[in-house]
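User: Can you write out an input/output pair for a complex, sequences first and structure second?

Assistant: Here is one pair. Inputs:
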Amino acid sequence: MTSTPLETDEPEFVADYLLYLLAAASEGASAQFHATVRSHDLRVPEWRVLACLHDRDGAMITHLARLALVEQSRLTRIIAHMETRGVLRRQNDPDDGRRVRVFLTPEGQNLVDLLVPLARAHEKRLLAQLSNTDATNLKPMLKALLKTLEDPVAPTGKTSNTD
Amino acid sequence: MTSTPLETDEPEFVADYLLYLLAAASEGASAQFHATVRSHDLRVPEWRVLACLHDRDGAMITHLARLALVEQSRLTRIIAHMETRGVLRRQNDPDDGRRVRVFLTPEGQNLVDLLVPLARAHEKRLLAQLSNTDATNLKPMLKALLKTLEDPVAPTGKTSNTD
């Protein structure tokens, strides 16, 4: 049995693997801003819920779960906690009482008004560290990837999508 | 108090926010392959450890933790579990007995030999769904972002980095 580290014959895998690059970039970029989030006594999924309500106050929990990247059962607990804290409130939809909508309270709105500009400023600083081409193309490219991910990956081969 | 969902006056934030796009793309892309990982009775961090050992058999836990995107204390428990399962073994470095290196067992090597080609094939299918330009540029762009993330973000303004 060998006892010293070995470089394998095969080409390196992880450092050139798309899923690693995505996860590491997401984790690294988020870690920077999430320090700001936590300094406002918020957990990351709570910040994500607030950011979603910035765009659509009165959203339903299914919508929030999708955008906050949290399972619905976990999100329900998170939202209950945030309601206790006083940053949002749940209300049955007047047109369909089985549907629950989530609204910012004034305190929640204050947090959003504080954090969204900080998030935008952080994003701007991140993009400013890239080359101009990368800074221009990164978000459109990620959106294109997200769009393909909405469809299940075909079991084999290339789609007819060309440049 | 309003009781119907409101679109706010401000432009939409989440759907154009880099950290959301990165997290959603990472989560969506990984979810597809992680179904394969779980079908081999592996948890995601375990797969990541195996993938890292593919590149550097005998790596140290600090190195594995960085690439597997897991805190070192958690990784130590994961590695203990994987050793019990028989897919890797820990061994003290002969040159420095305080350092522990991690090696694949033959069973671990078999798992790696099975999963790394599956991961590469999945990556290939994902990239084939993008336009040729995006498929060519996505990984280099993510690597450029990762490189900037290794340095702390400057508190203000743009760096001198230009195209």
